[in-house]
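Predict structure. Chain length: 311.
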Amino acid sequence: MIVKQADVSDRSQLATVLSEIKFLRGVIHAAGVLDDGLLMQLDGNRFNRVLAPKVQGAWNLHELTQDRSLDFFVLFSSAASLLGSPGQANHVAANAFLDALAHHRQAIGLPALSINWGVWSEIGSATGQQNRLRSRGVRAIAPATGLQIFGQLLRQNRAQVGVIPIDWSKFIDRVDAPFFADFRSIAQPLVQRRPASMLTYLQTEVAKVIGLPSAQLPSPQQGFFDLGMDSLMTVELKNRLETNLGVSLTATAIFEHPTIRDLAQHLTTLIDAPPDNPPNAPTQPPDPPAQPPETAILAELEELETLLRQR
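Prediction complete.
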C-alpha cells in the first residue's frame, strides 16, 4: 500500500504520485472544499478555491490516467448539481463539471461514473446542514448504507447516478425554483396573491425557511433574527415572498419590519395599494441615474451585510 499526500489540482504533484503506482486499477475522486456565500459576493478567488480540487483535480486525473487500463473512474459529485443549493453557486458549478466529465469519458470509451451524493449522516463537509436539509425533505445517508450503495453502483454502467433519500412532496412544498414546477401536484396549488390570513401565511413561510416543523409556527411578535435567521435565510424568505405574492421587496425589508406581525402588515399594504400609487411613494419622484442591474444588487447586498454586522 502506498500512502501519499498531494494537491490533486497541481498536475506536477499528481503526476509524481501516479508515476509511483505501477498497477493502478481504479480512481476515486472525492476531493472538495466549500466556500458558501451569496452569488454576488463570490469573487474569482472564492470560485477558484472551490473549483480547483473538483474541476482541475478531476481533469488532471482524467488526462494523466488515459493510458492506464482502469476498471473504474469514480467522481464524487453532489446532489447540489441536480437540485441546486442556495448560497453554493461555486459548489454547484464544480460538481456539474464532474457530471459532464463522466459523460465525456464514457462517450470516448473510458470508464466513468459520477455519483450525485446527498449529505452523509456522520462524515463529509455537509454534515452541518442536515437539519436545514431535513426540513426540506432531504434525509441523510448512513455511512454503512452509502458504502453498500457504492458497491452496487460500481457494478453498473451508467455515467451518472443520484443517491438522495428525499421526500418529494415535502421538498417541492419548500422549493420555489421554476425547474420543479412540473413536479407540483395539482392538489397543491401555489399560494394566491392575497392569502386569507397574511399573518398565518408568513408564519408558515418563516417556519419553512428556518426549518421548523409544520405544526410549530413561530410567534408573530418574535424577531426574525431572534429566530436564528442569517443573511442567506433572509434572501430566501425575500425571494419566496416576491414569487408567491407578486410584490417587490428591498433587501432590507426584514430589518425595517423586524417581526412577523410587522412584515405581514407591510405586505398587506403593498398588495392592497393601487399599482400606480405604491405606499410611501413621493408625489413626483426624481428620475434616478442609470445604474447597471449588478451594481444595484451589490449595493443592496452590501447594505444587508452592514445591517447584519451591526446586530
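Summary: Residues 230 and 308 are 8 Å apart (CA to CA).
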